[in-house]
Amino acid sequence: MPGLEDLYKEIILDHYRNPRNRGELESPPAHRTEGFNPLCGDEVTITFELKDDSLAEFRIAGQGCSISQASASMMSAAVQGKSIKEVRDLTREFKSMMSIHEESIDSEEPNSASTATFELGDLEALKGVVKFPVRIKCATLSWNTLLTGLDELEA
Amino acid sequence: MNLPPDLKDQFPLLSQVINDHQIVYLDSAASSQKPDSVIEAMNSYYRTINANVHRGAYEIAAQATEAMEASRTQIGKFIGANSANEIVFTKNATESFNLVARSWGGQNLSEGDAVLITDMEHHANIVPWQILQAEQGFEIRWIPLTPDGLLDLTQLDQLLDGVKMVSITAMSNVLGTLNPVRAITDRAHDAGALVTVDASQYVPHVPTNVNDLGADLMCFTGHKMCGPTGIGVLWGREEILESMPPFLGGGEMILDVRKDGFTSNELPHKFEAGTPPIAEIIGLGAAVGFLESLGMAEIRQHEISLTEYALKALGDRYGDDLTIHGPKEASQRGGVLSIQYRDVHPHDLSQVLDQKGICIRAGHHCAKPLMRELGVGATARASLYLYNDESDIDALVNSLELAGEMFAL
Fold first, then answer.
1. How many helices (H) and strands (E) does chain B have?
2. Which among A151, B39, B42, B393 is least buried, having the fewest CB atoms inside 10 angstroms?
3. Mind listing the pLDDT tens digit for each residue in B263-322?
């Protein structure tokens, strides 16, 4: 049985208690996207400004559990200043760590982050979420919202 | 008379060990556990008389039909229906509401009309009206709440002006509030409106008589009242059901089908297209038998006592650190306790309790407009039923502190 210590690592609780890049940028000019977890009511609002194809400014607001808020905070730190392509790759890497990829249907163990082309850094702390499947949506809410925001801009 | 103290023994699931702890099930507002008698009734149907109903002339088909119709009669009597024809089987309360909105609403609502609901409705009594509204362009009005989580009826006369249907919950699945249904149905009828009652949280817990409530239509579901999933009920006064067009089309709901059209079957079959969930209907009949054997008045009394115990135990232990949404008096509410403990998010709270084998619900409980009124994204909800006892409440009270230590900001 996975214990709470697998889920609630100290660094996660730190990001929950002291969220980074919290708030909203004025929109416009910033792009603004909202995300909802229809299962539990969590909400995130992402605002960002692009400069030369990179996320120059990034803020995240909303309400949710420690996992969703910590994941959002860690994401905000990880994507700040990155190019859109880097952000998309990182998102794919993160979701793969959350065992969200087509291959996972056949494999018993979710792909480990060892195949990562990106250093997930602090984000590795969220790996334990996979052992609590109902919480995966909490961890991925902000990432999916960011993807939606990027898609909207590129549409 | 009290409920038997060893009631948990009749619910096999409640003897399970989860995460090294005997399970403490406090999520009956989402779905109740099932007693042996219900599980056995369904198994027995499959083992002995499984056959399609209302057609075969052979022995087991006749027995299956008889068992299903006996359940319909029993369920009708249980809620004070005037005839078994007033009991329409659906998949759940949600389908019952969709049936009402699509069939009655489709026929009767258009621009200039209004439907009156409340700020504490479940999505099942909101979205079907909104879907229809997009097509037919009527107005949806909302009865607001008082700060205590009661319906604020001070503006009811104005709200009722021009309303054709009032659709309200008898008991909130978030606040536990028991609403004054009879007073509202009387005033609605005076204003020329019909009333649909959401009794999903009411029928399982409170002695129910549709004539006392003064309702015209009533929706509830089987799995919250010790019955199986996949079976719900729409009760309606016969003349209203008669006036409504069919909802789903297909087998069973017709008297005749020709190339140029069809003739609807009689009530209640008019609204029961396709092979019904026979085992589930029989299971729900067994659940009603189980509830009747305990006595609905006794069940209600048990839940009032347990709710009082819980309100006091939580208040004594945590004081201002803990908020319970909804009415403060156990007599005004059912055993649904939506709690906010310090600033611990409901999701985290339920995760910590799960480690102790305690099952509570975290989320918006399919009532997002209410969540917005309360100014929260989610609540942690513990809900009680006939099999819960003081030890379950003690487990809840004792485990909250653990979550506080981990997550207090």
1. 14, 17
2. A151
3. 999 999 999 999 999 999 999 999 999 999 999 999 999 999 999 999 999 999 999 999
Q: Please list the residues that pair with A54 across neighbouring strands.
A: A51, A83
The three-state secondary structure class of B186 is: helix
Residues of chain B with Cβ-Cβ distance to A42 below 8 Å are: 347, 377-378
| Count of CB atoms situated within 10 Å of the CB of B7 | 17
Q: Using an 8 Å Cβ cutoff, are B231 and B211 in contact?
A: no
Q: Are B384 and B310 in contact (CB under 8 A)?
A: yes
Q: What is the CATH number of the domain that holds B134?
A: 3.40.640.10
Q: Which two tokens stand for residue B317?
A: 């232990």
Cβ neighbourhood burial of B142 (10 Å; 0-12, 13-18, 19+):
middle
Cα B51 from Cα B275, distance rounded (Å): 10
Task: Give the chain B residue nearest A138 (alpha carbons).
Answer: B347
Same domain, B151 and B22: no
Residues of A in contact with B368 (CB under 8 A): 41
Only one residue has tokens 């709470």, namely A4
Report d(CA B406, CA B101) in Å as an integer.
46
Neighboring chain B residues of A6 at a CB cutoff of 8 Å = none
Task: Assess contact for A3 and A115: CB atoms under 8 A.
Answer: no
Same-domain check for residues B67 and B122: yes
| Cβ–Cβ contact B347 with A under 8 A | yes
Structural domain span for residue A21: 4-154
CATH of the domain at A32: 3.90.1010.10
| pLDDT, tens digit (0-9, with 9 covering 90-100), for A96-113 | 888 876 454 455 554 444
Would you call A41 and B355 a contact, using CB atoms and an 8 Å cutoff?
A: no
Of B277, B293, B309, the domain-final residue: B293
Same domain flag for B129 and B258: yes
Number of domains forming the structure of chain B: 2
Active site (catalytic) residues of B: 366
Together in a domain, B150 and B286:
yes
Residue B159: CB partners within 8 Å, gap ≥ 6? B116, B141, B143
Q: What is the CATH number of the domain that holds B368?
A: 3.90.1150.10
pTM metric for this prediction: 0.91
Domain residues for B369? Answer: 7-30+295-407
Which residue in B has a C-alpha nearest to residue A40's C-alpha?
B363
Q: What is the DSSP string of B203-264?
A: TTTS---HHHHT-SEEEEESTTTTS-SS-EEEEE-HHHHHHSPPSS-STTSEEEEETTEEEE
Residues B214 and B329 in one domain: no
> At which of B293, B308, B332 does a domain end?
B293
Residues B286, B260 contacting (CB under 8 angstroms): no
Domain count of the fold of chain A? 1
Question: Which of B346, B377, B407 has its CB closest to that of A43?
Answer: B377
